[in-house]
Design brief:
This protein has about 575 residues and is mainly alpha-helical. It folds into 4 domains: about 70 residues, 30s Ribosomal Protein S18; about 90 residues; about 120 residues, no CATH class; about 230 residues, no CATH class. The protein contains 25 helices and 7 strands. The strands form 3 sheets. Strands 2-1-3 form a 3-stranded antiparallel sheet. Strands 4-5 form a two-stranded antiparallel ribbon. It has a two-stranded antiparallel ribbon with strand order 6-7. β4 and β5 form a beta hairpin. The protein is globular and about 80 Å long. This is Non-canonical E2 ubiquitin-conjugating enzyme C-terminal domain-containing protein. It comes from Linnemannia elongata AG-77.
Length: about 575
């Protein structure tokens, strides 16, 4: 074993031998090693390891414990990073906010606001359009992420300056006077703040709108990842990265954090949904929300914080609730369909969830009850990930901008392989809580991060943003079946082919729950199977075969256009 590998595998004294970034909590007598609580539970969950004897390690309170290294790399920010220690200190440490134990809604909002991005204002939206236009014509990754004998550093610097030049030209074309003020007789270094702001706007907008900037965001993050390297930054002469503007940081700078402690925040940020409500109820909720916003904006305004700025902060928190409804609630709805139409202890004829390896493309063998709990646990895990997506995205941003990477052929082209210590720690915490909640866990607990399946934190975020794109079209189809069945011809077709509306719904969800959770989607158990990421791979595989399903015409009749996030007719 060479010295570099030995250094990467070294564990700081007093820290977990598995994750290397958490203080050890248990000592295993049989393994003769120390683990943190999460890793011990994960590694000693099944097999003979269940019978291992553990001892709790006594640790005196010591706030000066040095930060451990993760795979040979410090968990603190790199020298070239613009993410300050103060910024990192404000972020929650390896905890899931939903379980933070806050006693009031205000405490919960304060915690969560640390990673809720601020909504863009009108000026920022204009700059966003310019940034997107520049990224759309940029060939950054095509020029940089290739195998070449030329200097990669020179290619990176050239492409970054080229992108900045495109942005500069677009700014001048859009607003000549503004462009003249910024770029007349000035170098890129002189406009460091402008480029930092415009790149931060792009990152912030993407977090709030995962369906936007589908190709441009990857170029942006890879460019910022390269620009943060010390040699590149010194050659460029300026830094491109600043922390993302969040509700918490915005209010803290202006002395307005007290606004989040007021109980009226719940009414001011509530999302108003029309489901099952009459017009009078909706109007009442709207007036109540508007009144709460006005009261808060007037009460907490000061010399540094205007009422309009407070309103933007409240709207941003409301955007977070809207995000959760779009990305988390589909998991809740699918869980309701699971519990409504299926019982783990009894099987309805023709609607068994059982799967067998080798049959109909399945790569797992589960009985009806086992498959029921496998689906239940997977949907609950996806729900928790969606609930904590802003938190995970903040950690992903840190991992991408603070760690080196290697260019490797993963079988899907050249990809940037990079350590993801912060995201990995948070994911293991979420998984551990999900396993504790489930009691009995079905399937593997392996989380792919920084390998050929999920090369870096950007790929991780992109992967789990697909959950809503998979579930929402299915849910919309199920909800619209009754409406299209009002047509006599369609109703006759449904009755003759599927045995009625209720049976049609059962047929669709049964096929999804069986075939989308069968371990398919790859030719090995590292890329698919029952591992945490393989569950999503199987669901995508089901989506790719939707045209072959007997119920596909029903999807088309309800307005289905695809699983790519496009709007429905």
């Amino acid at each position: 074993m060479d010295e570099d590998l030995a250094a990467a595998q070294a564990t700081a004294e007093g820290f977990c031998v598995e994750c290397k970034d958490q203080e050890s909590f248990y000592s295993c007598e049989q393994c003769a090693e120390e683990f943190c609580e999460v890793c011990y539970a994960m590694l000693h969950r099944t097999g003979n390891r269940v019978r291992h004897i553990k001892k709790e390690i006594y640790k005196p309170d010591n706030k000066d414990t040095p930060a451990p290294s993760v795979n040979g790399m410090s968990t603190s920010t790199s020298k070239g990073s613009s993410l300050s220690e103060e910024t990192l200190a404000e972020l929650p440490e390896s905890k899931v906010i939903v379980s933070s134990g806050s006693s009031t809604f205000g405490d919960w909002v304060i915690d969560r606001s640390k990673y809720i991005p601020m909504r863009l204002d009108l000026t920022e939206r204009k700059l966003l359009r310019l940034l997107e236009a520049a990224l759309n014509v940029s060939e950054y990754t095509d020029k940089v992420d290739i195998l070449s004998y030329t200097s990669k550093s020179k290619r990176i610097v050239h492409q970054i300056k080229d992108l900045c030049a495109i942005i500069s030209g677009l700014v001048v074309a859009n607003d000549y006077r503004r462009g003249q003020e910024l770029f007349a007789d000035k170098s890129f270094e002189d406009n460091e703040e402008f480029f930092q702001v415009i790149f931060e706007i792009g990152r912030r907008h993407k977090i709030m709108n995962p369906e936007k900037m589908r190709s441009a965001y990857g170029k942006l993050m890879y460019m910022l990842m390269d620009s943060n390297m010390e040699e590149i930054e010194s050659t460029l002469g300026f830094n491109c990265v600043i922390p993302i503007k969040t509700v918490y940081s915005y209010l803290q700078e202006r002395g307005g954090l007290d606004v989040l402690k007021n109980d009226l925040v719940a009414d001011a940020t509530k999302e108003i949904i029309s489901d099952g409500k009459n017009r009078q109820q909706i109007q009442l909720e709207i007036r109540k929300k508007e009144r709460a916003i006005e009261v808060l904006s007037r009460k907490y305004a000061n010399g540094n914080l205007t009422p309009d700025e407070i309103k933007v902060c409240l709207y941003s928190i409301g955007d977070n609730h809207s995000f959760l409804r779009t990305n988390r609630d589909p998991c809740d709805k699918m869980l309701k369909y699971l519990t409504k139409y299926f019982n783990p202890t009894s099987i309805e004829e023709g609607f068994s969830l059982a799967i067998r390896s080798g049959q109909q493309g399945a790569r797992l063998t589960h009985g009806h009850e086992t498959q029921y709990w496998y689906i239940n646990q997977t949907l609950n895990l996806w729900r928790e990930i969606a609930h904590e997506m802003f938190y995970l995205w903040t950690l992903s941003d840190m991992d991408m901008l603070d760690n080196d990477y290697r260019l490797r052929d993963t079988g899907q082209g050249l990809q940037r392989l990079q350590y993801c210590p912060n995201v990995s720690k948070a994911m293991h915490t979420i998984l551990h809580k999900a396993q504790q909640k489930a009691g009995m866990w079905v399937g593997s607990s392996v989380i792919h991060l920084g390998d050929s399946n999920v090369p870096n934190a950007f790929m991780f975020i992109d992967k789990y943003n697909q959950v809503a794109r998979i579930l929402n079209p299915i849910i919309l189809t199920l909800e619209k079946i009754e409406k299209i069945a009002e047509d006599e011809g369609i109703n006759a077709y449904i009755r003759d082919t599927f045995g009625g509306v209720n049976n049609l719904r059962k047929t669709i969800v049964c096929d999804f729950f069986r075939m989308a959770f069968d371990g398919s989607g790859a030719d090995n158990f590292f890329s698919a199977g029952s591992c945490i990421d393989g569950r999503l791979t199987s669901a995508w595989n089901w989506c790719s075969q939707i045209e072959k399903k007997a119920f596909f015409p029903i999807f088309l009749l309800t307005g289905f256009t695809g699983f790519d996030g496009e709007t429905w007719s």
